[in-house]
Amino acid sequence: MEKVPPIFKDPEQQKLFDRQGFLVVPLLNQEEIAHMDQLFDEVHPELPEYGFYAGSYSSDFEYKKRVSEEIKVVFKRAYDSIFENYETFGGAYLFKMPTPDSDLFIHQDWTVVDESRQIALNVWVPLCDITPENGPLMVLPGSHYPAYPVLRAPTMRYFFDHDYQQAMNQLIPVIVPAGTAVVLNQSLIHYSPPNRSDKIRKAITSGVKTKGAQMIFHFKEAGAADNLIEKFEMDDDFFIHFEDFFKDIYKRPTVGKSIGMVEYSVPMLSGNELQSVLRTMKQTAGYEFVEPKIPEVQEQLLEKEMVENVQQPWVDERTFWETYKPGNIYRELVSRIKK
Asked: Deepest of 71, 171, 302, 334, by most Cβ within 10 A of its Cβ?
C-alpha cells in the first residue's frame, strides 16, 4: 500500500495530526477575519430565525461560487505557510443561530479521495471567539482513517449509528479564538452542540486535499444489494452543484463520471465491540477513554441484586415447639448416636 504523502510542512504538526486526526493552528489575521465577517453580512442580508445553516445548503449557485472563491483567495496566505503538496476544493460559511435546535449531528464527512493514497482535510475557522456556550466543534480523537477504515457517503450509514451515544460520550470540545483553525481529517468523527449564547456563531469550512488527488463520491441505490455501491469521479467544485441539497445528495449524481460498482458493506458496530474500537482510537491518540456510566436505575437494580445475592447467616425463626416436635427429637437422637 502506498504511503499517504505529508501535507503539513512542519514534521511535528504532521506527526501530531496523524496521531489524533485533528490539529489546532492560527490561520487568519485580524484584517482577514474582518474581511470575511463583512462579506458574510453582505451575502446574508436576511438570516433564518433558528437552526444551523451551511452555505452549501443554498440553491443559489452564484452565491456559493463567490464565497468559495473568496475563501480560496483569503486563505492562500496562511495555507502556503502551513501546507505542502496541497490544493483546495472550495469552502462555505457555516453559522448557528442562537436557538436550541442549532446543533449539528454527530458524523464523519464524506469520502472524497482515495484515503489509502491521499488525504482530504476540513479546515474549520470561526469568525468569533468560541466558548462552551456558542456551539463549539467537538471531536473524537483518533477516530480518523486508518484507525477504522470505512467509506462514507450520504446514502450510507455510519459504523457507529446503532450505538451513537457511545461515540458522543467520547467527544471533546475544541475551544479556540476567532481566526484559529481546527484542521480535521475528513474521516474524523465530530459534532457541534447548539448555540446557547445570545449571538449568531459564524464560521467557515474550507477543503484541502493532496495535490492532484481525484475527487470521488459514492452512491448507494435504495433497495439495491446491501454490498453494492456506485463510485463516481467528480470535479473539485462538485459540492456547490447541488441545487436542492437535502434531496440531491440522496439521488444518483447528475454530475461527474461513474466508474462502476464497488462491493462494500459498512460494518455496523455496537455494544462492547464498538466500545473496544472507540477505546483503542482515543487511547492511541493520547486521550483518556471515558468509562461508560451505569444508568441510575440500572445501578440501583444492580445494587439490590448484589444485596439479595449476599449469603446471609441462616436464622431459625420457628418456635421452640415447632423445632422440638417428637419426630424431630427422635431424628436428632438417632443422628447423634450414629456419630
From this structure: 71
